[in-house]
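Figure 6 in text form: structure in, sequence out.
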């Protein structure tokens, strides 16, 4: 195994996502605007408050670190909280959130990308196309056909 140095003109961008300062002002134990949730996405001492998205620090059972702040996770949390609110309205118990990792795709321009979807690595035009499909689906789920057309997703 021989070490080799490769010259490249590469930029690496890394940024942290920070939750809302309002969380820090409202609750104890909040770090970077995120509050640790219970398994049903409520918080300690407040069974009537659900926390999702960028302000949620959901730690899956048996894990040590919270899930990242991604749209895929936030959308699944939102759907789960809607079901839990329905359960409460019907006099039933809330259920624990279980994240289902459906893969990750990153576009690198309009015709290039990388990703891991359905257990397979994808690159190039396939990844860019899959990213467009995912974005269109997300807009459609949030606002229906009207919003998808308005945002130019068709």
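Output sequence:
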């Amino acid at each position: 195994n021989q070490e080799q140095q490769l010259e490249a003109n590469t930029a690496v961008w890394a940024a942290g996502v920070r939750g809302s300062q309002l969380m820090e002002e409202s609750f104890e134990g909040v770090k970077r605007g995120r509050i640790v949730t219970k398994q049903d996405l409520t918080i300690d001492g407040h069974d009537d408050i659900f926390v999702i998205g960028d302000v949620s620090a959901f730690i899956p059972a048996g894990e040590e670190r919270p899930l990242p702040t991604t749209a895929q996770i936030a959308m699944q949390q939102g759907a789960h909280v809607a079901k839990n609110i329905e359960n409460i309205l019907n006099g039933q118990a809330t259920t624990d959130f279980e994240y289902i990792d459906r893969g990750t795709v990153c576009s690198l321009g309009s015709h290039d990308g990388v990703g891991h979807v359905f257990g397979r690595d994808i690159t190039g035009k396939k990844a860019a196309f899959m990213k467009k499909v995912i974005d269109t689906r997300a807009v459609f789920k949030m606002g229906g056909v009207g919003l998808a057309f308005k945002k130019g997703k068709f």
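Caption detail: Residues 53 and 71 are 8 Å apart (CA to CA).
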